[in-house]
Amino acid sequence: MPIETLQNAFSELGISNDYTVLNKFRQYMEMILEWNEKINLTAITEEEEFIKKHYIDSVICYSFPELKKAKTIIDVGTGGGFPGIPLALLFPEKQFILMDSLQKRLKVIDDLACKLEIKNVKTLHGRAEDLAHAKEHREAYDLCVSRAVANLSTLSEYCIPFIKKGGSFLAYKGIKADEEIKEAQSAIGLLGGKFLREEQVPLSEYDLDHHIIVIEKIGGTPAKYPRKAGTPSKEPLK
């Protein structure tokens, strides 16, 4: 059964296999796949793949000190709720903001979070380029996580402005992470960040190629960043 795959991964990652929590993971998956027939929430529709590529992939940072110490976390470009929902289920004491530019996705997440009584999640609709300039969100979070599809320079411009000084950014990237880190070093520094490390969590049998890039926020982000909507993706910082 697919849920056994999740249990095995949890054991490898040192995560407690709490029945109530596992049941919420199962229900959320079933509901997302049901909704997916009406709204495009995920391209992954087979349960085993869903568990590997959405759930296990989302929680591979479980033991990272940056996540452990954070109290407020923003998930930029959450899509169907990843990695935000899996992390929120494992850390009910932390507050999660799940941000996306597509409101109909967020309405689904709101509905499912309510039904499953996931009380530490709120959604936020808008583009990062706009929301990161809002007083209540700028440099307001201990941690930013993102699995959004964008090069690291662009993603850093979206995400680093949300993070408090002393906070961190976890960027989920693929096997070409080393190239992206080299290309993004200047942009990361310009935005007030500092590259700390790249981690690949060794897990057996799951065929996951995600590396997590850990960036620390060491200074304030200049007021002009992020630039206006669309610019970070069209003209990545060099």
Task: Please render the helix and strand layout as text.
Layout: H1 2-13, H2 19-35, H3 47-59, H4 65-69, E1 72-76, H5 84-90, E2 95-100, H6 103-115, E3 121-125, H7 128-131, E4 141-146, H8 152-159, E5 163-173, H9 177-190, E6 193-199, E7 211-217, H10 231-234
Parallel strand pairs: 1-2, 1-4, 2-3, 4-5
Antiparallel strand pairs: 5-7, 6-7
Helix pairs in contact: 1-3, 8-9
What does the model show?
This protein has 238 residues and is of the alpha/beta class. The protein has one domain (61-234): Vaccinia Virus protein VP39 (Rossmann fold, 3-Layer(aba) Sandwich), CATH 3.40.50.150. It is 41% helix and 20% strand. The chain has 10 helices and 7 strands. A 7-stranded mixed sheet has the order 3-2-1-4-5-7-6, sandwiched between helices. The longest helix has 17 residues, at 19-35. The chain is globular.
